[in-house]
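Appendix C: a fully annotated inverse folding record. The material below is reproduced so that readers can follow the format used throughout the book. The structure is listed first as tokens, followed by the designed sequence.
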């Protein structure tokens, strides 16, 4: 059985890429970012699915519904990363190999962004590589899934 189904989940305000500070987030719109990630995925032989919401409960419920649907997860929860214990708990319930991704270098920004409540549940964190970070994350996840 191949383990190649990956869910890409984006949280709050990421749909507004293109209107956000380009110094941190680059110039792509969210649609362009998703298209870029889909091509990284197909280059790596992965099947990608996408989800974005600005509603924390919807993000949580989407995680609840992933059981049996995908083999791994890429998550960029946006600002929820830094404080949402509800999303952390839901990620733990999902019990899937996950990689945390941030477009910006959260470790070099405000102190509150340096906290991640999901990091220790993830196989790896990729931060500050812009859109390319998703390629790094997908490659790392592929490696994790092939070892499974
Ligand atoms: C982000 C970093 C977060 O601190 C911020 O709130 C975001 C985007 C990133 O991709 O760099 O919305 O997750």
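Designed amino acids, in order:
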């Amino acid at each position: 059985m191949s383990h190649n189904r990956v869910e890409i989940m984006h949280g709050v305000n990421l749909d507004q890429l293109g209107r956000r500070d380009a110094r941190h987030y680059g110039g792509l719109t969210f649609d362009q970012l998703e298209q870029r990630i889909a091509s990284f995925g197909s280059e790596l032989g992965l099947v990608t699915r996408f989800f974005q919401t600005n509603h924390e409960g919807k993000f949580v419920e989407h995680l609840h519904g992933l059981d049996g649907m995908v083999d791994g997860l890429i998550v960029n929860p946006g600002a929820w990363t830094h404080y949402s214990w509800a999303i952390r708990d839901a990620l733990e319930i999902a019990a899937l190999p996950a990689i945390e991704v941030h477009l910006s270098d959260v470790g070099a920004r405000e102190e509150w962004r340096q906290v991640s409540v999901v990091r220790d549940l993830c196989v790896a964190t990729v931060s500050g590589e812009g859109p390319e970070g998703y390629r790094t994350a997908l490659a790392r996840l592929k490696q994790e899934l092939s070892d499974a």
